[in-house]
């Protein structure tokens, strides 16, 4: 029978072993994980209804808390789109000399909560491609106003509107009934922004054997409402839905953008 102190040391050692295994992820592991995810996406696409099969989902590899060498490994395997949740971490990686040298065509997606007072820190970064988490008119207006300060060309900033489809208090995003007004504001008042689509984080732990994920169904309905009210072709409004636990189901339901981290890079150590 384990004594209390032995029990403590056993679990402490087990935790340290788990951390060591996470840190031991090699470049070969990353490349294999990436290939497995891409194959699963392809298989999920084959199960789509005919009208959805013409659209190929984009994979965003979520690299938060992961070291530079693993990002480079995924890039060398052909991955170009990467997602980060934290402004400071994205700043460090986007300006990293190794990434700038070896990953010249990398495309960064910001997928975390963005405060208006940190907008410039993100917009000034090299290879910033999209902000997926625009959740207020204030944030959209700030992005629209500040984007020209950092880009000399006429290229618009790609954005997605984050929708809190599950309406959980701890999640960011606008409610589904605000989507049409929000998209109207972006389309009519934000000439420096390109509305790439809608984004959601589905409720954790949903079992797809119970039927289509209601969060994904809601986001699709939001897109239908936007297209009808604004006269936009549905093919021009993407759907960013699906993460490591549910990306295959999301693809089957029509996701055009999946955000996958642990299935490629291994489980991460949560920040304290």
TrEMBL record:
One of its GO terms (molecular function) is pyridoxal phosphate binding. CDD domains: PLPDE_III_YBL036c_euk (cd06822). The modification N6-(pyridoxal phosphate)lysine is found at residue 64. Residues 55-268 form the Alanine racemase N-terminal domain. Keywords: Pyridoxal phosphate. Belongs to the pyridoxal phosphate-binding protein YggS/PROSC family. This is Pyridoxal phosphate homeostasis protein. It comes from Phaedon cochleariae (Mustard beetle).
